[in-house]
Specification:
The chain is α+β, with helices and mostly antiparallel strands. The chain is 28% helix and 27% strand. A hairpin with a 4-residue loop joins strand 16 and strand 17. 41% of the residues are buried.
């Protein structure tokens, strides 16, 4: 059963009337937004629209069901953007779903993720009360940080109704370097060199080279730069000198500009590289742990993309048989945790869950009756 409020007051009344429910935005992340058969979904697409936008203040406030794509178009008209690169905009992702899932795109490399740009929330807690946290100005820092608690809450702590974000001026132009590495070790060394350098990087992603296979597969490093168009060529040349042999480990470099460059990253942000029959799992990790994980993944047919300078891997795992048990065991053995975004519903978290104790205490405070399902 689907419940479709069109006002915050209607949403509040529906929450108060239902013993259990799960909020749902645009449905772009079905593994997170598909409730059990006996639990209704609270469809928030009717709560859509930008309520306030102050370009000079670099903030906006919108209802949670507002499509990300709509917001991006509005901001672009004023030369502004959300630097954390919201995922799945072309698939219908909403602001509320983006916050609840706590996911960011490749642009988080320079400025941080969604939690670094969310400054205010209004939500319905488990008691059916409208609660406000944070503010509508960037300088607001008083009180308990409810906005941060709602990032990654998966609709288990409350129903997001209204969100306030800070935004940044958008770069005038972008350039991307595609670099090829014959070995994983040399690619990881250069990622570390880049991440600890003074170079300004908008994205730093790594993936197995197309067509490569086996334990000695080649690797592709994607380096995105943004800024003034006239300054980018010189910056690209410095980057090439920094990364190409003999100074670095790359054996070749290709440059992308204009629409080709933009299309490349749109595909990344909309996860179009993920096979249709796979579950997509977000796994936080560190650069040093990649070789250990790769030693296991090389035994399995999977696609993956490391993002944020190796601090995150998007893992496309074949969703057949007891896939969740197998992947869950692999992650547990490596002391890693995974959040399932795409794929069959019913499984949201895999592997270890180091924040479970804190999450339960927050859940008890905001939803003591368990109206919004349990935290996985």
């Amino acid at each position: 059963m689907s419940l479709r409020p069109t006002t915050p007051e209607e949403a509040q009344a529906l929450v108060q009337a239902q013993p259990r429910l799960l909020p749902r935005g645009g449905g772009s992340k079905p593994a997170l937004s598909t409730p059990p058969q006996d639990v209704p979904s609270l469809e928030l697409s009717g709560l859509s629209g930008v309520l306030e936008y102050e370009p000079d203040e670099y903030t906006f406030t919108a209802l949670a069901g507002t499509p990300v794509a709509e917001v991006e178009k509005l901001l672009a008209r004023h030369g502004q953007y959300l630097p954390f690169d919201p995922l799945l905009a072309e698939k219908g992702a909403t602001l509320g779903g983006t916050v609840a899932a706590g996911v960011s795109g490749p642009g988080r490399q320079r400025y941080g993720g969604v939690r670094d740009f969310l400054i205010g929330v209004r939500f319905i807690n488990g008691a059916g009360q409208l609660v406000h946290g944070g503010g509508k100005v960037v300088k607001n820092a008083a009180g308990f940080d409810l906005p941060k608690l709602m990032v990654g809450s998966l609709g288990r702590l409350g129903v997001l109704i209204e969100l306030t974000f800070k935004v940044f001026p958008g770069p005038a132009a972008y350039t991307t370097l595609k670099l090829t590495y014959p070995h994983l070790e040399t690619a990881l060394t250069d990622i570390y060199r880049l991440a600890t350098s003074a170079l300004e990087l908008h994205a730093l992603d790594l993936e197995p080279a197309e067509g490569a296979g086996g334990r000695k597969q080649a690797w592709t490093l994607w380096v995105r730069l943004g800024g003034l168009a006239e300054a980018l060529p010189a910056r690209v040349e410095r980057m090439r000198e920094f990364l190409l042999a003999p100074k670095g480990g790359a054996t070749s470099a290709e440059t992308f500009d204009g629409s080709a460059e933009s299309d490349l990253w749109q595909q990344v942000k909309n996860l179009t590289w993920t096979p249709a029959d796979s579950a997509l799992v977000k796994v936080p990790l560190t650069l040093k742990r990649i070789p250990t994980l790769e030693a296991q993944l090389n035994k399995i047919e999977t696609q993956r993309r490391y993002s944020a300078a190796g601090n995150l891997v998007w893992l496309a795992w074949p969703a057949t048989g007891k896939w969740a048990d197998k992947l869950g065991k692999l992650l547990t053995d490596l002391d890693l945790s995974g959040l399932v975004l795409l794929g069959p519903p019913g499984v949201t978290r895999l592997g270890v869950n180091p924040g479970a104790s804190l999450a339960r205490r927050v859940k008890q405070a905001l939803d003591p009756g368990g109206r919004f399902l349990e935290i996985g």
